[in-house]
Amino acid sequence: METQLLMASVKANSLAAQLLRTGQVVAIPTETVYGLAADATNPAAVQRIFEAKGRPQDNPLIVHIAGQEMLAQVVAAWPPAAKRLADAFWPGPLTLVLPRAGGIAPAVGAGLATVGVRMPAHPVALDIIARAGVPLAAPSANRSGRPSPTTAAHVLQDMAGRIPLVVDGGNSPVGVESTVVSLAGKPTVLRPGFVTPAELSEALGQEVALAPSVQGPAEESGPVESPGVKYRHYAPKAKLTLVEGPLPAFAAFVAVKSTETPGVYAMCFTGEEKTLAVPAVPYGAEDDPKTQAAGLFAALRQLDEAGAQQVYARMPAGGGVGLAVRNRLLRAAQFRVESET
Ligand code: TXA
Ligand code: MG
User: Fold this and answer.
1) Is 75 within 8 Å of 247 (Cβ atoms)?
2) Does ligand 1 come within 6 angstroms of the Cβ of 60?
3) Per the omega criterion (within 30 degrees of 0), is the bond before 91 cis?
4) Angle at Cα 135 formed by Cα 131 and Cα 138, nearest 5°?
5) How far apart are CA 140 and CA 29, in angstroms?
6) Which pLDDT value is given to residue 226?
7) Does the beta carbon of 179 lie inside 6 Å of ligand 1?
8) CA separation (Å) from 50 to 43, 114, 125, 272, 312?
9) Residue 18: in which H helix or E strand, if any?
């Protein structure tokens, strides 16, 4: 299959909507990362997402809506906590997990009785959903296990030949995927994102819980609250290790490593490249987690393209949005962390 790449426009968005209505899969921009979209009410279309992505069938998809009037098609309940969070953060990078409505293809929920739903804050995404006229299931538009795509070029790296159309809406400004909050029981963050636990607690007037997988590895056995967290994720081809400690210790550490093995690269904060004895790719400013979120996935892909074999990354501080940055990096590194002081 030939994959078309079109800049977002009335014509491109209409073509996307037409393909979506006929059960095809189309990559679309959102404010977080690019999504691999299909009609959430069409089981065959949803199945095509799993095939294009190489995604395990037990990992559920997020459904995207253009306005709250689409909610009735997606969720079977809309509790007060959902209304509060939607009013505070939609359109925006927040996914709410709620009981699933009957019209949504069961594969979207991957065997769960729930569904994740969000209204993205991206004019192109909203326009395409509205033109399609149906809620769109859309996971991140990477091949399963790879870093999420924040540009149309990233999507093509993974999806060329697998889908008919990529709509280019520029760089995804947020850069990490949405915060996923379960409202099936006590409000619980299943995946950290741009909307922070403190912001959620404030909007709810009640403390939100953090699922254990937000901070650490998912349990090998036992129930998993969000199936996605148990899979290898966000991973570059290179072996990635996080290094905790100050810059001088990091610089000394990578210098030694580069004498021991070939292909050593550093992933650092902006401006640190010149103090490092190995090739380095910056992913954001040390004191600004929002820039780290925006640059993280592009940096991981850039390291692959450069042919890095061993990557040592500076550990982000982890406050605010930094919680999401840390969570993605820990998974990309399969929880390998070294401490240097
Ligand atoms: O920002 C985003 O959320 C992007 C853009 C495209 O919207 N989408 C995205 O989708 O990141 P995906 O499929 O890569 O990640 C969805 C996450 C997974 O961790 C999945 O397990 C969780 O959301 N999830 C989806 N539905 C769920 C449900 N019903 N219950 C629990 N977790 C769910
Ligand atoms: Mg993903």
Assistant:
1) no
2) yes
3) yes
4) 105
5) 10
6) 60
7) no
8) 11, 18, 20, 40, 32
9) helix 10-21
Q: How far apart are CA 338 and CA 183, in angstroms?
A: 36
pLDDT in tens, 266-314: 999 999 999 999 999 999 999 999 999 999 999 999 999 999 999 999 9
Q: Which two tokens stand for residue 106?
A: 């069961």
Which one, of 171, 168, 169, 167, lies nearest residue 19 by Cα?
167
Taking Cα atoms as reference points, which of 302, 250, 264 lies closest to residue 281? 302
Cβ of 302 below 6 Å from ligand 1: no
Any ligand 1 atom below 6 A from CB of 138? yes
Q: Which residues contact 63 (CB under 8 A, 6 or more apart)?
A: 40, 74, 104, 108, 115, 116, 117, 118, 135, 136, 137, 138
107 lines ligand 1 (CB under 6 A): no
Q: Whose structure tokens read 């002081």? A: 341
DSSP per-residue letters across 215-253? TSPPPSSS--SSGGGGS--S--SSEEEEEES-HHHHHHH
Task: Tell me the two tokens of residue 147.
Answer: 């870093």
For the segment 132-162, what is each residue's pLDDT rounded down to a tens digit?
Answer: 999 999 999 999 989 999 999 999 999 999 9
Contact 331, 191 (CB under 8 A): no
Ligand 1 atom closest to the CA of 114, numbered from 1? 29
pTM of the model: 0.95
* Paired strand residues for 97: 116, 182
Beta strands 337-339 and 239-244 are parallel
Q: What beta strand segments (E) does 29-78 contain?
A: 35-39, 62-64
CA of 140 to the centre of ligand 2 (A): 4
Q: How far apart are CA 341 and CA 328, in angstroms?
A: 23
Token duo for residue 269: 């904060």
* Nearest ligand, CA 35: 1
Token digits for 167? 């709509």
**Closest approach atom of ligand 1 to CA 64:** 7
* 261 CB-side CA count, 13 A: 13
Residue 51 pLDDT greater than 50, yes or no: yes
CA distance 337 to 215: 13
